């Protein structure tokens, strides 16, 4: 039996956050996924984080300086919970012994619209 696709009225509404990431050493997409999940679980708890619908959609490396490496990323979360995700990511200072700074530079309803912030 073929699975039916949910109509748009029954799907979860998502928002896409564009992140500006500065780190003192190199990270990859898998480490960013772990960082996002760990920080949200630490600051919001497991029950709350399970409702976030988090996913890292895009990950870009921009420039390397002597002091830090600059990345940008687009993550997906639920529409009603964007403030909790943004606050959790803003509180991160260290991950796996690496100094890291994450700021949200944009929020939109589609991936294409969020890429204009990059």
Number of helices: 4
| CATH topology (level 3) name | Alpha-Beta Plaits
How many domains? The number is: 1
User: In which order are the strands of the major sheet placed?
Assistant: 2-3-1-5-4
CATH class: Alpha Beta
Low-confidence parts: none
Range of strand content: 35-45%
**What's the overall average pLDDT, rounded?**
91
Structural class: alpha+beta
By DSSP, the count of extended strands is 5
CATH architecture: 2-Layer Sandwich
- Tell me, briefly, the overall form: globular
CATH homology superfamily: Ribonuclease P, Pop5 subunit
Provide structural commentary.
This protein has 118 residues and is of the alpha+beta class. It has a single domain (13-117), classed as Ribonuclease P, Pop5 subunit (Alpha-Beta Plaits). It is built from four helices and five strands, in the order βααββαββα. The chain has helices spanning 29-44, 46-49, 82-90, 111-114; strands at 14-23, 55-64, 69-78, 94-95, 98-108. A hairpin with a 2-residue loop joins β4 and β5 (98-108). The longest helix has 16 residues, at 29-44. The protein is globular.
